[in-house]
Amino acid sequence: xxxxxxxxxxxxxxxxxxPEPDTVVAYFKDDATAFNNQKKGTITxxxxxxxxxxxxxxxxxSEIGVPTHFIxxxxxxxQLLRKVEIIPVEVVVRNVVAGSLAKRFGLEEGSALPRSxxxxxxxxxxxxxxxxxxxxxxxxxxxxxxxxxxxxxxxLRINDxxxxxxxxxxxxxVDFKVEFGRLWExxxxxxxxxxxxxxxxxxxxxxxxxxKLDKDRFRRxxxxxxxxxxxxxxxxxxxxxAAHLREAVGPHLxx
Length: 255
Ligand code: TMP
What we know:
By secondary structure, the protein is of the alpha+beta class. It has helices at 46-63, 99-105, 134-139, 145-167, 216-219, 225-236, 240-245; strands spanning 6-9, 13-17, 23-28, 31-34, 39-42, 70-73, 78-82, 85-86, 89-96, 112-122, 131-132, 171-185, 188-194, 202-206.
């Protein structure tokens, strides 16, 4: 057993000191929370599935040139990451009206937006992650103008790429949240994609039935939470069982 020094415990992950300098290890828990910790529960197997889904998406994004903190998956629940200074801004990209956007403007969930919307929230549980403007981000020094431009362009590239990837497996990418971090690379401070991308941080609807395949099932006390996470992994071709059932491992195209 490797003993690792714990650096931080979040709601869905624990971060440990990594085995090499400038690395950390993220351990994915089965714990789930919603509405800033007011609702708590467990989604059995979520940690294992999110570890693999996030690995898969980060690797595909890195292949198209999106810099990420992901180095490699270590085991069923842990991944090795480059240590970054997290920028305390949650970046939400929306393609379809849902969640807090529907609530805020009294809109019905499900209409496609004429163009993607990018929103920013200040990552602060005590304040309940308030929505913020670019002005707040630069005025309070959470990121400078150059970093913010980079964040915006990365968020939109991530959205375009992931929308297509999910569409290919019969899933509509309704919205998602990403976080970024900064690190020194070749004497330059760079912004890279951090945290995780998984059904915890995305809204994923089946294209044909509009069935929810994400954490909204937990937030809204719906049945089949575990199965929804498994279904996303299965369609991406990364469930261990799916690998045995089918010889080819990889996304399975859905018409
Ligand atoms: P929202 O509609 O509740 O603002 O959520 C937008 C997206 O961001 C949705 O895909 C879920 C994700 N999200 C998080 O990952 N963490 C959060 O704390 C919240 C509020 C949303």
